[in-house]
């Protein structure tokens, strides 16, 4: 029980103090973004995609032996489409209406990521995994949370400080509570995991792949391959 609570506390601290962590670190903002981006890309290819494949194999047996072999991949596609559509719709409304709706646009963004954080926290704490796995994979997820929070900070610093960071943290805490108090359902967890996997892929590409002017290539490449190598070794020797 202490392990999950430690991870929750770390996630909450990251969401509330993301900008202070990045700005006060000697690593520098560009290297922070490149580090998070490299690990996030690695996380997709060495954890999310293999896990999605495994969940799909198990899904037919638990979900009334459905005949298709791609149900969960379709939920992943839905996750990408939903987050892309909502993001673009909010941006289009903002650009058409001008600066007068900037605060409202930011509130919509924050609500979207409140739900996003809640779903990620749910699948992390509801999944059947060891404390060691939870802590290890929480490094990638925590850095992802930090990058998204920092982007929202840059979008509207005053509103982020006023309520945005607390809404993001609240999403994590509520997701943890739902995972803790609701009965375990393999089917529900598989569907939510697939949907969130698609959403994570979209947000990693949008928020964490650094642009040319804000990228530190050695940090990005090193982070991607080191995290991938460690993950593969842990899977090999510990059978994760």
Distance between the termini: 20 Å
Strand portion = under 5%
**Secondary structural class:** mainly alpha
Report Rg: 18 Å
Q: What shape does the CA trace take?
A: globular
The strand count comes to: 0
Q: Are there runs of 5+ residues with pLDDT below 50, and where?
A: none
Mean pLDDT value: 84
- Biggest β-sheet, characterized? none
* Helix segment tally: 8
Helical amount: over 70%
* Topology as a string of helices (H) and strands (E): HHHHHHHH
Secondary-structure map:
Elements (H helix, E strand, L loop, with lengths): L1 H23 L4 H34 L8 H27 L4 H25 L4 H25 L1 H25 L4 H23 L8 H22 L2
Helix pairs in contact: 1-5, 1-6, 2-5, 2-7, 2-8, 3-4, 3-7, 4-5, 4-6, 4-7, 5-6, 5-7
Provide the descriptors you would attach to this structure in a database record.
240 residues; mainly alpha; 8 helices; 85% helix; globular
Walk me through this protein's architecture.
The chain is mainly α and 240 residues long. The protein is 85% helix and 0% strand. The protein is built from 8 helices and no strands. The protein has helices spanning 2-24, 29-62, 71-97, 102-126, 131-155, 157-181, 186-208, 217-238. It is globular, with a radius of gyration of 18 Å. The relative contact order is 0.20. The model has no long low-confidence stretch (mean pLDDT 84).
């Amino acid at each position: 029980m202490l392990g999950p609570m430690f991870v929750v506390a770390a996630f909450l601290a990251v969401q509330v103090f993301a900008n202070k962590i990045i700005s006060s670190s000697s690593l520098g903002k560009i290297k922070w973004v490149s580090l998070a981006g490299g690990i996030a890309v690695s996380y997709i290819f060495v954890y999310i995609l293999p896990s999605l494949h495994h969940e799909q194999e198990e899904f037919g047996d638990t979900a009334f032996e459905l005949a298709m072999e791609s149900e969960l991949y379709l939920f992943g596609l839905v996750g990408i489409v939903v987050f892309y559509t909502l993001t673009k719709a909010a941006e289009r409304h903002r650009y058409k209406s001008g600066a007068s709706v900037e605060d409202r646009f930011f509130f919509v963004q924050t609500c979207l990521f409140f739900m996003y954080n809640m779903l990620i926290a749910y699948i992390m704490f509801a999944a059947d995994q060891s404390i060691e796995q939870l802590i290890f994979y929480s490094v990638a997820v925590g850095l992802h949370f930090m990058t998204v929070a920092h982007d929202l900070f840059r979008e509207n610093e005053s509103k982020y400080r006023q309520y945005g960071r607390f809404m993001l943290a609240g999403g994590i805490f509520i997701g943890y509570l739902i995972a803790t108090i609701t009965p375990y359902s393999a089917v529900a967890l598989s569907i939510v995991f697939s949907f969130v996997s698609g959403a994570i892929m979209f947000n990693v590409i949008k928020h964490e792949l650094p642009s040319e002017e804000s990228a530190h290539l050695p940090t990005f490449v090193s982070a991607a391959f080191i995290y991938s190598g460690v993950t593969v070794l842990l899977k090999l020797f510990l059978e994760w």
